[in-house]
Design brief:
Strand order of the largest sheet: 3-2-4-5-7-6
Bound molecules: thiamine diphosphate, magnesium ion
Oligomer: single chain
CATH topology of the largest domain: Rossmann fold
CATH architecture of the largest domain: 3-Layer(aba) Sandwich
Strand content: 15-25%
CATH superfamily of the largest domain: TPP-binding domain
Number of domains: 3
Structural class: alpha/beta
CATH class of the largest domain: Alpha Beta
Length: 557
């Protein structure tokens, strides 16, 4: 039991939880924290110059370490800047503990903002500490709740008086070991019966597969039943992209995705439905053919059997659920059913070979385009990417080219943002590098997304975090132009010959990223000749310092 100030106990609790970094941007209300940090060198404060960078960093750091990360922002003003990417963290279920200072509780009638209320929609739980004796339990709740399934961001605010006042506190070794949900055996049995007799089974993987480290188990399921696999989201390696059964991504709610899985008689969907892509009127609310039988597996009971007609709901951690399902399938499938699965797997392998051939042809077809095609750009990157490199992907429309030229089959070798807000990558590259100091980290970003949080370069320079940032400079918000065409053709049903003016979607001059980057301390190169790209990347790696390569690519649609 010790007598200490509130802020001292916060840092002691952080240390007891092995917190290594606080990502933040301080204000006057954070003075007590910044002063107290001087006495706790075990915790490093990573300063960002825009709050979105801190959230991006904390998001990828938590996902990469599979532990809660800590962000500290300034009162309502700083917190507001972080909310956009906090929305992504909520969507991707990232365990971030966002904290902020607030005014003394005595000022309650003087216009003190309710910070907890402000971020309630974007967090799993919120609390405002107004007395130092609330600190221990509020932080315990924050650590536990952020890591309990479904994981997610939480918020804790601290009033000025709670930071300065003294109290008696006993800080214990309080590391939580989160228990994982096991499925109901009846639901496993029902799933086995459906999958064993399916003639056209499909598996949809979501991010919860990589989050629960269940990629291997998902591969086994697909092989046992001979199922085609699509990714509803791919923020982590949810399935090895080079596996014969894998067919890339699917965007629930879009017509072509519906058509891709329309003929499936049984769908096993793992993780939360990823259905935020469609933003036009007249959405498709039923994602699956009414004749398709859906088995939905997720750790979150509120997401299972939610909006879609569901035959079997499996509320379980995917790793545990899939391994139980696999054991049951192995023992219950008849010899004939196993033969049928083998035949389907063989067909999928033949199809995959053709798909790979087509990809190669596409790379060749776009080989000498000027400006450089995104495919050529990614091919050149793929040539020099070290085996142990980790790719952080915020490349928006250039992502397709990443998957055309690279494969990801190992866990934690690929991270991308999820949830819609752009600006994730600039901080996320740094977060992944901090959590993997011995791996080369390459962060590929769209020019639009990079500009949202360009201040992240300063943090990389200031702390010498050697991320290689690569910009897909297509001088536009290209995705919005593609979506505008979809809107005209498929929502308005008015495919007029006249092209849109794409108001607010073009940058008339290419942004000079080299200039911006050099001015805030990150060495930069501009590349428009594809022949020079791989050398530029090697040079960046060799420098051991943060760097930026601005690649001029074709932005046509
Ligand atoms: C914070 C935020 N503001 C605006 C948007 C709308 N938006 C979605 S994608 C996008 C443009 C992305 O452009 P870029 O990163 O250059 O990728 P490209 O489409 O060119 O491949 C915009 C503005 C958003 N998603 N998030
Ligand atoms: Mg762009």
């Amino acid at each position: 039991m010790g007598n200490m100030s509130g802020v001292q106990s916060i840092l002691e609790i952080f240390k007891s939880r092995e917190v290594r970094y606080i990502f933040g941007n301080p204000g006057t209300s954070e003075s007590p924290l910044m002063l107290e940090l001087e006495k706790h060198p075990e915790i490093e404060y990573i300063l960002v110059l825009q709050e979105g960078v801190a959230i991006g960093m904390a998001d990828s750091y938590a996902r990469s370490t599979k532990k809660s990360s800590i962000v500290n922002l300034h009162i309502e003003t700083g917190l507001a800047n972080g909310i956009s990417l906090l929305h992504n963290a909520k969507e991707s279920r990232t365990p971030i503990i966002v904290t902020a200072g607030n005014k003394d509780i005595r000022e309650i009638a003087n216009g003190r903002t309710d910070l907890a209320e402000m971020v309630r929609l974007f967090t799993k739980s919120t609390a405002e500490v107004t007395h130092p004796e609330q600190i221990l339990t509020s932080l315990r709740k924050a650590f536990n709740e952020s890591m309990n399934h479904p994981t997610g961001p939480v918020f804790v605010g601290f009033s000025a008086n709670s930071l300065d006042e003294f109290h008696q506190i006993e800080i214990s070794d309080d590391m939580q070991k989160t228990k994982k949900f096991q499925p109901d055996m009846n639901a496993i049995q029902d799933s086995v019966e459906l999958l064993a007799t399916a003639t056209n089974p499909v598996i949809l993987v979501g991010d919860q597969v990589s989050q629960s480290d269940a990629t291997k188990e998902a591969v086994q399921t697909s092989e046992i039943i001979g199922a085609k696999v699509f990714a509803m989201s791919f923020s982590g390696v949810n399935f090895p992209t080079n596996h014969p059964n894998f067919r890339g991504d699917i965007k629930l709610g879009y017509l072509n995705s519906f058509q891709a899985i329309e003929k499936a008689d049984v769908i096993l969907s793992i993780g939360k439905f990823t259905d935020g892509y469609y933003m036009f009127s007249k959405p498709r609310l039923e994602y699956f053919n009414p004749r398709t039988k859906l088995i939905h597996m997720d750790v979150d009971s509120t997401s299972v059997g939610n909006t879609q007609k569901t035959e079997v709901g499996l509320i379980t951690d995917p790793k545990i659920g899939l391994s139980m399902l696999n054991t049951a399938l192995q023992s219950e499938l008849t010899t004939n059913q196993k033969e049928i699965s083998k035949t389907r797997n063989k067909k999928l392998l033949d199809e995959k070979k053709l798909i790979e051939e087509t990809k190669k042809i596409q790379i060749k077809n776009n080989w000498s385009n000027s400006p450089m095609s995104p495919t050529r750009m990614m091919y050149e990157i793929s040539k020099v990417l070290p085996k142990n490199a980790i790719l952080v992907d915020d490349s928006v429309t250039s992502r397709e080219s990443i998957f055309q030229t690279m494969n990801f089959d190992q866990p934690n070798t690929y991270f991308s943002g999820f949830g819609g807000a752009i600006g994730w990558g600039m901080g996320a590259g740094i977060g992944v590098q901090l959590s993997n100091p011995n791996n080369p980290v390459v962060c590929i970003m769209g020019d639009g997304s990079a500009m949202m949080t360009i201040q992240g370069l300063w943090t990389a320079a200031n702390y010498n975090i050697p991320v290689v940032n690569i910009i897909c400079n297509n001088s536009s918000y290209r995705v919005l132009k593609i979506n505008m065409n979809y809107y005209k053709n498929h929502v308005l049903n008015n495919p007029s010959k006249e092209t849109s003016k794409y108001i607010g979607m073009n940058f008339p001059e290419r942004i000079n990223f080299e200039g911006i980057s050099n001015s805030i301390g990150v060495q930069a190169q501009t590349i428009s000749n594809p022949e020079k790209l791989s050398d530029a990347i090697k040079k960046s790696f060799d420098s051991g310092k943060p760097s930026l390569i601005d690649v001029h690519i074709n932005g046509e649609i």
